[in-house]
Amino acid sequence: MFDYKDTLKNLQGDCIKVLQCLSRLIMSNSESSTVIGRGIDEYMTRLEELCIRSRNSLEKYRSRNDAFTASPGTRSTDSIGGSIEVLGEGWLHITLNTLLPNSRRENGGYIGDTVSRLMQGYGGGLPYFKNAFMAIVEHCNYENHNALDNDNKAWKAIPNALKGRVIEDDTQFCLSVGLFSKLSDDMRCEIYVMPSDEASLFMDYLTNNYL
User: What is the CATH number of domain 73-207?
Assistant: First the structure.
């Protein structure tokens, strides 16, 4: 534990940098959407990096008798940004309590890290697919979305996190991908992974609001 305080001090320094980004946004009088967007991107990237760095550097200081680490299956997945389950069809279902970031800004890795931690903390067995279909369904509206165009959505970290644990690979021959949106004031991102030959069943569920 001798380096615990040093770790906290380093994180404190990172927190200050995040607050400095926020302060620059507050003090800026610019009305340029480009300038404002650049400042937001800097703030969000530093904040996500701080979150990941905190997760990785502080976890080792927990007590070995702490139920949080001793029994991963009892871990509150909501505390790390989402939830995970295996549906009756054998599909993997992950809910993220956020939307996909805009790919035009630097990606801090928060989405991929969150998916990895949800899988690590899951108490049951995860399915494994040699050939899979991954559907990403964003629930948002025209005001609260992060990226209106599909080509601006940073989704690639998700299959990278799944590779080797749920899917064999993320090549075009092993994984097909679908991006969908549902109009909703309740922002969230739903991820479904299933055998590729069950994609038509998923589309039927999605179209008829059975999910």
Answer: 3.30.1330
